[in-house]
Amino acid sequence: MLIAKAANSCQYLSAKIYGASLILLFTVSFCYHLAEYIPFNTMTLNLCHRMDRAMIYVFISANYYPWVLLLELPRDSWVTHLSWGIWVLAFLGITYQQIFHEKYKLIEVTLYLIVGALPGLVLQHTIDEVEGFIEMAIGGLLYIVGVGFFRSDGKIPFAHAIWHVHVVAASTCHFYAVHRYLLGRTNLPEGLHCQSI
Questions:
Q1: Are 16 and 3 in contact, with CB atoms under 8 Å apart?
Q2: Residue 86 near residue 64 (C-beta atoms within 8 A)
Q3: At what angle do helices 159-177 and 133-151 cross, to 10 degrees?
Q4: pLDDT digits over 87-121, tens only?
Q5: Could you tell me the residue ranges of all domains in the chain?
Q6: Cβ contacts of 13 within 8 Å, gap of 6 or more
Q7: Which of 122, 96, 116 is nearest to 107 (CA)?
Q8: Which of 39, 43, 103, 104 is deepest in the core (most CB within 10 A)?
Q9: Is residue 193 annotated as involved in ligand binding?
Q10: Distance between CA 113 and CA 60 in Å, rounded?
Q11: Quick count: other Cβ atoms within 10 Å of Cβ 27?
């Protein structure tokens, strides 16, 4: 749906990266949860768990990618570096997560929230009245509320399942925003980074 709606090469690239990350997130998550119920060896389960956690960072960055690539950000500002900065944040988060896997869970969750919220806060204060930001904000709020259940796994009945419901609802909001407001439109100002694509 995303690729079919893309109106130019920049939108096409955004659709591919965002769409691929969406598919990978749910595929890797499915494989990890399947591995928990099938008697795989500990090494396989650990690998699936690490991949599942790493995909969260990739997905967060891919969520922002269409916005920073397709919108016209202020020139001569550090904000223009968000298109690669979000991936640096993801790389740093994945590196930390792989080194200290499940050792400092509160720090890990805090990093997810920082990597997830920081680009959104920057974009919100940089670009005025961009359609779709309400849906992005609602999705972000759903993720944040869901994190409470993620942290309550084992304490609240079905907390992990409730976390996944929040993930599906939030990713649906973000998908709608990207599909409805960014792709297929020729009246959007061309983002600074799109001009070289």
A1: yes
A2: yes
A3: 170
A4: 888 888 888 888 887 787 788 778 888 877 776 76
A5: 2-196
A6: 69, 197
A7: 96
A8: 104
A9: no
A10: 10
A11: 12
| Residue 33 is labelled as binding a ligand | yes
The identity of residue 4, as a single letter, is A
DSSP letter for 129, please. S
Comparing C-alpha atoms, which of 25, 5, 4, 1 is closest to residue 186?
Answer: 5
**Residue recorded with tokens 């900065």:** 85
Flag whether pLDDT at 196 surpasses 50: no
Count of C-beta atoms within a 10 Å radius of residue 187: 4
Q: What angle do CA 82, 90, 18 make, to 5 degrees?
A: 70
- Residue 65, CA distances (Å) to 18, 34, 103, 119 in order: 7, 29, 30, 10
How far CA 41 is from CA of 34, 38, 48, 55, in Å, comes to: 13, 9, 11, 22
Report d(CA 89, CA 99) in Å as an integer: 15
Residue 160 is assigned to a ligand binding site? yes
- Supply the pTM of this predicted model: 0.82
